[in-house]
Amino acid sequence: MSQPDIIMGIHRDWFNESASRYAKNTIGWWLIAGIIWSFIAHNHPMLDIFLLILPGVFVISILSIPLFWVRIQKYKRVPDTNNVLVLSLFTVTSIIDFLFPIVMAIVAVNLLNLW
After folding, report:
1. Are the C-beta atoms of residues 112 and 51 closer than 8 Å to each other?
2. Distance from chain centroid for Cα 110
3. What confidence score (pLDDT) does residue 2 get?
4. What's the pLDDT tens digit per position in 38-58?
5. d(Cα 56, Cα 53) in Å, to the nearest integer?
6. How high is the pLDDT of residue 67?
7. What pTM, to 2 d.p., does this model score?
8. Element (H, E) at 10
9. Can you name the residues that pair with 10 across neighbouring β-strands?
10. Which residue in 44, 40, 56 sits closest to 105, CA to CA?
11. What is the Cβ-side half-sphere exposure of residue 32, based on CA atoms within 13 angstroms?
C-alpha cells in the first residue's frame, strides 16, 4: 500500500526537503547564538554549550514545530493572495521565525546559569 504523495497540501518530497532545511537552520542559529552568548556573558561556557547541544537541540526542534507549520501555510497561501493584511502577517512571522532560535538560545543560557 503506497503512501499519499501529499502532506498538508504540499508534495511529499518538497515537504521533506523544506522540513529538513528548516530544522537545520533553526538548530544552526540556536547553536551559534547560544555559543556566542555563553562566551560573552558567562564564566563557565562549556557546561552551557554541552547542554545547548545535547538536550537543547531536541528542545528547539520541538518548540519550532508551530513556526514550521506557519511557514508551510505561508508557502501555500502567499502565491494565491493579494491581501495586504495576510502578506503583512506572514512578513512578521518570517521575522519571528528568524529571531526565535536566537532569542530562545539566549534565554536558555541565562536559565542554565541561574541553576
Report:
1. yes
2. 19
3. 57
4. 988 877 788 888 888 889 899
5. 5
6. 92
7. 0.83
8. strand 10-11
9. 7
10. 56
11. 11
